[in-house]
Amino acid sequence: MKTLCCLIVLLPLVVFSQDLKQHLWQDRVLLVIADSYHNDTFKKQVRGLIKNESGLVERKLIVYQISKTSYFLGVKDTDPIQSSKLYDRFNFDEKTFKVILIGLDGGIKKKFDSYVSARQIFETIDQMPMRKQELRSKND
Question: What are the DUF4174 domain coordinates in residue numbering (predicted)?
Fold first, then answer.
């Protein structure tokens, strides 16, 4: 039982790769992963997020755009970081497109295998206990 409790506590920390560790308890993370930046679903996803940038900021949501060989931090970054580490870690099943939502605790909260609207992402976040607490604190 003690081992199980330790695993439950440590699992979110293990899930966070080295690059994402900086966001733990600071930001939520949205990984937009595709086999190529030219993937049509990927481009549609990023465009939808750009249109809703204020919602990203309000929810402390950091976006990583990830391909096989590099990644961008944010929705408007134009300077890719050359690394396959995030792609290999989070796209081990080699899907051509996926979106992964990671909570403040570093745990994976939701996975999508197709385009997901910003509204649906925001609704998912807004139902999380920590987000509800943030909203209550903001209104007090």
Answer: 20-134
